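A favour, since you know our structure tokens better than I do. It will help me judge whether the discrete encoding reads sensibly. The space below this message is yours for that.
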Amino acid sequence: MINTLQRYLVKELLRTFIPALLCFEFLLLLGFSIQLIHKGLDVPSLAYVIPYMALYTLPHALPASLLTATVMTYGRLSADNEITAIRIAGIHLHNIITPIIVTGVAFSLLTLYLYAEVLPKSYFKVRQLQEKAVKQVLAKHFITAKKKINFHPYQIYISSVEDGIYRNIAVFEYAEDYVVNILLAEEGEIEISDSGSKVVLTLRRGEFLKPNVKDSVDIPKMGSFEEASFEIPLRQKVRHSALKYTTLTKLVVQREKINNELKNSTERFEDPERIIKVTTREILSINDKKKEAEERIEKSELEIRNSKVNISKQEGAIKRAKFNVGIFENYINVAKGNINKLTQEKKDEEDNENREIIKTVEVKQKREGEFLKKISLIEKIIEKEKRRIKKAKRKILISRRLIDEESKKIEEAKLDIKETEGTKGVLEKKHLILTKRVERAGKQKLGREISLHIHKRLSPSLSCLTFILIGIPLGIMCRSNSMLISLGISFILMIFIYYPLVATGIILADNLKFPIIPSLWGANVLNLIIGLVLFRNIFNK
């Protein structure tokens, strides 16, 4: 008898659950459709994405539908006094509660599977379709995308950059995972405002296109423009968008891997995002100092090379000067030899004249004049060569002094390089420490984001069970079999209590760095407490 009663309750619940689910699915689809149309998605594309949207909204519709069905089922039982009859028959209330709770557990597992495995794969499939559509648009308009820039919710593809001007630009505007607008332009500019809070995109000689999700090759044209400017607000926080497309099992494995990497780390940060920003600024400052040190080392190395070149030149000049000194000394020696030779010849002639007939005085004077003239000429040559030797030796002294100066410069440059390399080494060590800190903070931040995504998928699945726990006593207490009353109770609980708490919890966990578990599970815990209090009132009657 009890089994028959339990099967009857489950059938009654499902009989009410299906129309409630269709009702909530319709309302959620209508809301999402209006939102996407408002953002720019056209009706043909909307019709194509509705199946995906129905899959997205299903986990949201399940808890509300179960709550409505539970309140109506038990409300009808209470209104028809069937619960009183069951009690009179000696059947305890837990016998008519247990099968519905088990059903709630089953729906919680189904919701968990949808959030954990089905939706991420569906998101990824839609993303692949959009990327394929983007490639088709680029190929149709002969745009070879060599550069891609992401400014949420825009993706900008650029073929080339000439003199600071971007050529052949394609801009895709997204709403959720869907392309809602396409802009193509021959050229344009991208500038960040002075405040750094927005990007100004200026396009010239372009056209507006409307995407066709089914076949993005044939794209209807909306109109053209000569010049248009757009302001894109910059997101303050950068999230790992790939986590949206990762299944729950992979997220758990990834988080475990990150936890193992951080296990041996003694440095933990309360606010990893702030640490990343501050440390990144320090790294940029160190990079500037490193660049200055490298430029200083490069300058000193250039001075060393120039000094070595100068030393080589001066050594060559010394060799040439010494060679010239040798030549000049040979000239002098030759000249002195010529003087000795002339003197000897003069002496020999004088001896011969003593044995021969005495010549006239005029001949002697003439010969003496020629001799003195030759001697004078040779002595001038000797003096000239001595001056040249003196000049060459002075060049040698100057070159040696220059070599000493250049050698001193080399020593000073080497000393400067050594000191600068020491400073650079200290900067590199600090840079390595700061880089590891950023890496640890980034892993800690990523670990928190992964935990956030995990609990975002786990906590909604429990809502099916908690809403059933609330719906059973509420149905018994309200004693009504009206669908409108059941829907009203569901709307009040969902819109005014549950979803505001969920939204608040997500904001707290995401922005204010509150603990994740209390923030995201608080709404379910409150539902559970309300359900237990209501059950206590029922069992006490």
